[in-house]
Amino acid sequence: MKPYNDYSTHLREKYGSKVYRIGIDAAFSCPFRCTYCNENGSRSTYSTAGESVEKQISERIEYLKKSRSASRFIAYFQAFTNTNASPDKLKYVYDQILPFKDIVGLSIGTRPDCIDGEKLNLIASYKDTYEVWLEYGLQTIHDRTLKNINRGHEFKDFLNAYNLTKRLSIPVCAHVIIGLPGENRKDILETAEKLTELQVDGVKIHLLHILKGSVLEKQYRDGAIHPLGQEEYVEIVCDFLERLSPGIIIQRMTAQGSKGDHIAPAWALDKLGTLQMIVETLKRRGSYQGRDLPLSSNIKTKSSSHP
Questions:
Q1: Is 125 a member of any domain?
Q2: What is the pLDDT of residues 28-52, one digit of tens each?
Q3: Among residues 38, 118, 132, 131, which one has the least CA distance to residue 79?
Q4: Is residue 64 one of the residues assigned to a domain?
């Protein structure tokens, strides 16, 4: 059993088999270009810009069925801001998943300043058929950092989006980045503590990495920023997990760019090695997700996988 509340385990327990996510590029855009982003946004490494949503889903399902004997899938609208359009346009795009009977989930990645009540009502309408998640790019709770990386929103915008979303009982996954310029360990752990206070449903933890063509690439080459080392990152992730409520589902614990875009750090391309180091470090500490929380906050749920 993993010492954290693992998303893959949650899905396997719910559906009886492994569930595979299909990253989709629906040709949306973003209102801001963050300093860590390049022109590809957060597009998955296997998706191709310009292909129809239907083709992307069909080809990926066929591949996963043949290569992994997969039978259940989550449609993940991943690239750029997937609520950055009118509700009518969004419905047309999201409805492209309806013919695929093997899809059990719908996950939508977006920004907290690109959501409103009408869009949320539309997204909530899919809950009767799918396991629906809204994934908000928070990155950090600190406004000075958000300004520094050109996010274009403040923490209060996340709080507003979060509250609106929870009123409709839509699960929320918050994306955070560890290693942002100007942030120290205290800043990072304050983000973890705030997510526990809010009781978000899920968290994706990303490593700050340097992508070709991003603003950060120039800063990196000028020596203005220095990515975290692997051991340092692993230690901070473990500290972060120890301050997250065990009921929060961990959907991701590291990140890297595609081989053509990834500049640094080189170790980030060893995703499996990093994940193994995180597990081993927690075990060495005798630790687990939520260990360092007050007893009143450390509420275990059925889906928790730590001791």
A1: yes
A2: 999 999 999 998 766 656 556 679 9
A3: 38
A4: yes
Model confidence over 61-80: pLDDT tens digits?
999 999 999 999 999 999 99
Within a 10 A sphere around the Cβ of 211, how many other Cβ atoms? 22
Each as own residue / partner, the long-range contacts of residues 226-235 (CB below 8 Å, 24 or more positions apart, any chain) are 227/179, 227/264, 227/265, 227/268, 228/178, 228/179, 228/265, 229/265, 229/267, 230/265, 230/267, 230/270, 230/274, 230/277, 231/277, 233/178, 233/179, 233/207, 233/274, 234/274, 234/277, 234/278, 234/281, 235/281
Structure tokens at 187: 């800043």
> Domains in the chain: how many in total?
1
User: Taken in order 245, 248, 254, 257, is the CA torsion positive or negative?
Assistant: negative
DSSP code at position 6:
B
The verdict on pTM exceeding 0.90 is yes
pLDDT per position as a tens digit, 214-254: 999 999 999 999 999 999 999 999 999 999 999 999 999 99
Q: Which domain range does residue 218 map to?
A: 7-285
Residue 113: inside a domain: yes
211 located within any domain: yes
In sequence order, which residues have a C-beta less than 8 Å from that of residue 267 and are 6 or more positions away? 229, 230, 273, 274
Residue 159's pLDDT is: 98
Closest Cα partner for 177 from 131, 132, 225?
225
Strands of 199-240, DSSP E: 202-207, 210-211
Which CATH number fits the domain that encloses residue 244?
A: 3.20.20.70
